[in-house]
Design goal:
Length: 136
Amino acid sequence: MKKTSIKECRMISLPKEGSDRGSLSFLEGNGAIPFDVKRVYYTYDIPSGAERGGHAHIEQHEYVIAGAGSFEIVVDDGSEKKTFFLNSPNKGLYIAPGIWRELISFSSGSVVLVMASDVYDERDYIRDYEDFKVQK
Ligand code: TYD
């Protein structure tokens, strides 16, 4: 697993076209985020008090947006942690490979929209925190 640091995780803003008809944001292959998107998934109907995440990726990069509502993401590189608050559909968190993440404090109706650098592959996950610590 990559020896990445949480310093590589950062909020990245997307363009926002606002008008009296509402707002529109977009993400296209122009280097807005530091990887090419191969997969999109989203989490919703999240009950109050639930926690998601609880894993690290070995190779995959992710970019996470609050499509609706708000939540917190705690990123952890094995020696340092940082909490990001997501509540804006045009501002997402880039999570580098090799970073443990926990998603917590979901508001009612929140939608977690995730862009990933590759197709779903369980072999890219580390789901045991002790394993993660050993590999960092
Ligand atoms: P999980 O990794 O637990 O979600 P989260 O990171 O939000 O807590 O995934 C939940 C289930 O969905 C698990 O059985 C794997 C499956 N899954 C897919 O089939 N495809 C995907 O792209 C993702 C992200 C998960």
